[in-house]
Structure formats: C-alpha cells, structure tokens
Amino acid sequence: MKKKILKTLSGIIVAALFLFLALRGQPLNEIFQTVLGAKFGYVFIAMLFYFMSYVARSEKWRIQVENLNFKVVPKTAFYALMLHFFVNSFTIKLGGFVRCGNLRKTANVPFPSCFGSYLSECVYDFLFMFIGLFIILSIKFNEILLVLTNFIADLALEKYFSNPLFIVIAVLISFVGFFAGVYLYTKGLIFKKYKTKIKEFLDSLKKTFNLKKFWLFILWNIVLWVMLYFMNYFLFLSLFNEKKEFIFLFTITTFSYAAWLMPNPGGIGSVEYFVLQAFLLFGLSSESALAFGILSNGFTLISTLLFGFSLIVIQSLFGIFLQKNKNSELEKVDILP
Q: In angstroms, rounded to a whole number, what is the distance separating the alpha carbons of residues 82 and 89?
C-alpha cells in the first residue's frame, strides 16, 4: 500500500511540474474562455474517434496475447484494456496490473504471461512514437533541437547534460546496476522465491516480439494512430474552426502520444506542455496551444473515465465481458497456425 501511495504521489509531482512549466506566465482567464467556447459537435466526433482508438489498441494487444497461445475474445480484451486506462487516469501507471489481473479472472490468462505482453506493447508504443518523432525531426530538425534545448533548460539540467563526465558516470552506473542485478538473479541471490514466475514473464515478453501475425499487428498500430490523428483534427476544429496542414496535426498527435507515456496520472501537465511545444514549433501562440492542450487533456481524461465507468457498470449488471471458454494454465489453447 505504501509503495502504491508513493508511486501516486510521484506521478502527481511530475504532473504538477509539467503544469507549472506549461502555465507559468500565461493569461489563464483568456485560455479557459477559449476552452469553454469549444463546439460540442466536433468534440463529439472526436470522442467517437477516441473510442475507436481503444478498439484498435485492444486488438493489437490481443494479437500479442494470442501469440502466447491463449484465446482471448475481442470484448474481453477490450474490457481489460479499458480498466487499465480507467485506473491510469487517477494513478501512476498501475493500470497494467489491473488489466492483467482482470484478464486472469475473465479469460484465465496467467498474470506473468499477460504482463509480459503488456510490457512488450509498451516497447512497441515507444518504437512507433520514435518513428513519428523521426518523421517530424526530418522535416523540422532545427526547430526540434530548439524544443529539446528549451525542455532541458526548463528542467534546469543543461549544465549537467553539457558535461561529458556526468554522461559517462550516468552510463557506467546504469550498466553496473544492470549487470549486477542480472548476476544476482542468475545466482539465485535475489527473487529466488519468484524465479519461476519471473522466467514465465521473461519467456512471454520474448515471445511477443516474435509475432506470427506481425503485419496485422502493424496494421492495427497504424489504425490507432489514424484514429488519434482524426481525434486531434476535430478537437482543433472545435476551438479554431480552421484547417491545418497534415504535418502540424501529426506533430500534435505524436507529441501528445509521448505525453501520455509520461509517468503521471492521465497525462495531466505533460499533455499541456508537449502540445505547447508543438504549437510553438509551427509559430502559433502559446495561448492557443494551452487552450488546445487543456481541452485535449480534459477531453481524453473525461472520456476515459466515462467509458471505463460505463463498462464497469455493464459488467457488474450483466457480466457480458466474462469469457465463456476460459484458457487452461496447464494446457494452452493453440489457436494459431
């Protein structure tokens, strides 16, 4: 319980830091007036695309779970995923545990196997985010460097990162810590009690990087990004009622995606800060950037809570997300060719 409280508090601190960096010195009254003037019709269309992004995300994750030879029906995977993001809206990334705990109950997928698929999904998320950043970097190289410089300056870390000795020491400490942990684990000096579960988790993690339905997985990832792109497109129209070029909205989508991967509840603070950088990159005002960031963050947070709460009520009343034919932990269901 104490660890969960500490994680939540650390997430709140990260959110507060980004909120401070984004909102300091800004005309908040004007910004909130702009947000309150958002056109509901466009916001509703954006909500539909946001909902479909969860469908795409649950399907691509289901491919990873089924790659481990566990059968999971779409509605069961979708419910577990929505519980994950529902919990993430007010905690510091604890939703992954809830997701796998729920899938253990609804489909009898072992927790270590599920968690391995979840972590590999996170790796893929970062990979696609970096692909998006690379595309933007190839078009806006000098501007991106300026954003990174400003970010480091905002955190007051430029004097450390400009020091080669600091970088060398940080890398050495990381390598020593990693290899020391591996050595102690292989010698059975740490985690001995959980060695079997850890091995199962690592095997699952490794296997989900060797996908049998790789191209279908890639397709669902593309669909996810398309849904998020159009969500941002309609959110932008709801505030400013003007069309922008593809690369601008793609940058907002990529930067927002990066913000949601930060260790803070619901992307609070980081979305506003990252969206601000995206707007400044294209020469737009900080006021319009923060209005969009606040709308986007509030929209996704409220939508996720609404989706999650609705599904929890439906499940408690009808139990429709419980899978009829559950997997056996001893005999996995081989559903793939």
A: 11
Give me the number of domains the chain comprises: 1
- How far apart CA 205 and CA 213 sit, in angstroms, is 16
CA atoms within 13 A on the CB side of 88: 23
d(CA 216, CA 210): 13
CA–CA separation, 305 vs 58, rounded Å? 17
* CA 134 – CA 136 distance, rounded (Å): 5
Across 156-186, b (16+ Cβ under 10 Å) vs e yields eeeeeeeeeeeeeeeeeeeeeeeeeeeeeee
The CB-side HSE value for 102 (13 A sphere, CA atoms) comes to 25
Name which of 67, 9, 33 is nearest 295 in CA terms. 33
Structural domain including 228 reads: 40-318
**Contact criterion met (CB below 8 Å) for 74 and 235:** no
Dump pLDDT digits (tens) for 178-219.
666 666 656 555 555 555 555 655 666 666 667 888 899 999
For residue 236, what are the contacts with CB-CB under 8 A and spacing of at least 6? Answer: 244, 249, 252, 292
Q: Is residue 20 part of a domain?
A: no
